[in-house]
Amino acid sequence: MANVHRFTAKVIQKVLAAPSGIDPNRAGDLMSLLAKEVAPLVVPAPDGSLQHRPELRRLIMKDLGRGGPANTVREIQDRAVSYYSAEPARPSTRAEEIYHLLMRLFTLTFVTI
User: Fold this and answer.
1) What is the pLDDT along the chain (113 residues), one digit of tens a residue?
2) Sign of the C-alpha dihedral, residues 95, 67, 48, 18?
3) 52 conformational bin, left if phi > 0, alpha if psi -120 to 50, beta if neither
4) In this structure, is the dihedral angle defined by the CA atoms of residues 21, 4, 58 and 112, taken in order, positive or negative?
5) Sheet holding 50-52: strands in order across?
6) 43 membership: H or E segment, kind and range
7) What gap in Å lies between CA 81 and CA 75, rounded to an integer?
8) Please, which of 15, 28, 30, 57 could form a disulfide with 52 given CB 3.0 to 4.6 Å?
9) Which residues of 30-55 are buried (b: 16+ CB within 10 A; e: fewer)?
């Protein structure tokens, strides 16, 4: 799950479920578990999403290329771009869309080398 910056039930359902083999109907349950079980790794954001703790995000990003098959990483980035581009235009959703566009470029450039 290191391939996404924000976690919500909709992100789990629309972005992570298919490439990760997660039952999309369990997205809400998984969000609750994520909030409880990995509390030292994630923090709640003002919008209700969960984010990796900033000091841990750097470490997670270093392992991005080793975190899974390159095609899975690319699929998650592609799905995230599609998801956020379809969301209502707000600064936070546009920022996430741009973030995942840049991560997709990073993934295509560095992970596949």
Assistant:
1) 457 777 889 998 999 899 888 899 999 998 888 777 665 677 788 888 887 777 777 666 665 555 567 788 888 889 999 999 999 999 988 998 998 898 888 766 554 44
2) positive
3) beta
4) positive
5) 6-7, 50-52, 42-44
6) strand 42-44
7) 10
8) 57
9) bbeebeeeeeeebeeeeeebbbbeee
Rounded-to-integer distance, Cα 37 and Cα 84, Å: 26
**What is the Cα–Cα distance from 22 to 66, expressed in whole angstroms?**
20
Q: How many CB atoms lie within 10 A of CB 98?
A: 12
pLDDT score of 44: 80
The residues, ordered by sequence, that sit 6+ positions from 16 with a Cβ below 8 Å of its Cβ are 1, 3, 4, 22, 76, 79
